Amino acid sequence: MGTWDSGPFDNDTAADWCGDLDDADATKRPAMVREALSRAASENGYLDADVACEAIAAASIVAAHRPGGQPLTSPYAPDFLRDGGRLDLPDDLAALAVKALDRVMVADSEWRDLWQDAAGEANPAFDAVRGLHQVLTA
């Protein structure tokens, strides 16, 4: 996983997924967000870091659409959202995003293992996920 910072979009996998979201037909984008969240939330085995990165990016998009959510300003976030666009996201995606983030943060997650090894328990990547979780559960 090529990672250059701790934000939800600051890795190759998330940036590529955002590019695919940008390129997708607008009517298919909500389903792409749901799929990224569902893949992580439903994984019963060891969670692959790429699946986790896509889920974190998708959860960030859902959080940005929630009251109290921050606008997406990362240069790696989907262009159409940075430019003021919105998605028509079903209300149930917030709960699914929470479930996906919870799954990303458990012990059998490659993403968590990589960040744990890099920075220990208190680190900016964990803080970013916890911040998203807080917005999604508010």
Describe this structure in words.
By secondary structure, the protein is an all-alpha fold. It has one domain (12-137). It is built from seven helices and no strands. Helix 3 packs across helix 7. The longest helix is centred in the middle third of the chain and has 16 residues, at 49-64. It is globular. It starts with 11 loop residues before the first helix and ends with a helix.
| Contiguous uncertain segments of 5+ residues | none
Q: What structural class do helix, strand and pairing data support?
A: mainly alpha
Total strand count, please?
0
What oligomeric arrangement do these chains adopt? single chain
Shape summary: globular
How much β-strand is present in the residues? under 5%
Tally of contiguous helical segments? 7
Keywords:
single chain, 138 residues, mainly alpha, 59% helix, 0% strand, globular
Protein topology:
Blueprint: H1 12-23, H2 29-41, H3 49-64, H4 79-82, H5 93-104, H6 110-119, H7 124-137
Helix pairs in contact: 1-3, 2-3, 2-5, 3-5, 3-6, 3-7, 5-7
What's this entry about, in short?
With 138 residues, the protein is mostly helical. The chain has helices at 12-23, 29-41, 49-64, 79-82, 93-104, 110-119, 124-137. The chain has one domain (12-137).
